[in-house]
Amino acid sequence: GEGLPRPASTRVIVVANQKGGVGKTTTTVNLAAALAMHGLRVLVVDLDPQGNASTALGIDHHADVPSIYDVLVEGKPLADVVQPVRDVEGLFCVPATIDLAGAEIELVSLVARESRLQRAITAYEQPLDYILIDCPPSLGLLTVNALVAGQEVLIPIQCEYYALEGLGQLLRNVELVRAHLNPTLHVSTILLTMYDARTRLAAQVAEEVRTHFAEQVLNTAIPRSVRISEAPSYGQTVLTYDPGSTGALSYLEAGRELALRAVGAATDGFAVPAVG
Ligand code: ADP
Ligand code: MG
């Protein structure tokens, strides 16, 4: 694809929403692929014990594969666990294996338990334009590690009833981490997912989200698309599985928007809206 501006330093983006099934993983892998296909160097960190992002990127993540668990719990360098994604030049992945499920407990007794991912990323010396972190559907220590490591939070919101419920808790956690652990952290981006233009409800939810988060919501909404949901079972993103599909084009466009937005420019004076 055509080139996009390279950020001056690596943008570390945390894809979070403690609700399951809202499109975190789908957004992480497809946005990452979109940015890479636009010519940028991108790393996906799979931080969900389910390993769905690893699966979707065609990365082996059976129990013996060196993974983010080894980085967080054993202190292994990130460079030892990074794998290239086949078919997409410039795209890399740190897989998650099922032992990550225990890390939430194991981390509790470790030194600097909240900042182990941040330390690993800081020590990683390969040049990267973007790091996208796919969070589990909870606000535990794994997600806290992501929030400490990142500068930006991207919240995927599914355009359905109760879409904003629980969001207040996520936003408060972002504020807590910003206040105590990571002053650079801010919610930079909201992406509407599984948007069904035919339903009035989707339009209403989208409007409500755009009212609450005027600056953060990307203009591009991701449509509900069978091709998007099929791609992971082939170990592919929708961008290689069906490049001409509306799903692929929407993620390419969302990636373009994300890259063209200056870091932090839209977020000065951002106050936590009273939702959830
Ligand atoms: P999360 O990571 O937040 O739990 P996922 O990204 O795994 O959510 O998405 C939940 C389910 O919805 C998955 O089965 C996924 O394939 C499907 N899905 C996600 N985005 C879309 C979309 N735009 N169109 C159709 N299905 C989607
Ligand atoms: Mg997921």
Automatic annotation (TrEMBL):
Domain of life: Bacteria
Domain AAA, first and last residues per copy: 11-186
Family, similarity comment: Belongs to the ParA family.
Function per UniProt: May play a role in septum formation.
Name the record gives this protein: Chromosome partitioning protein
Organism listed in the record: Kitasatospora gansuensis
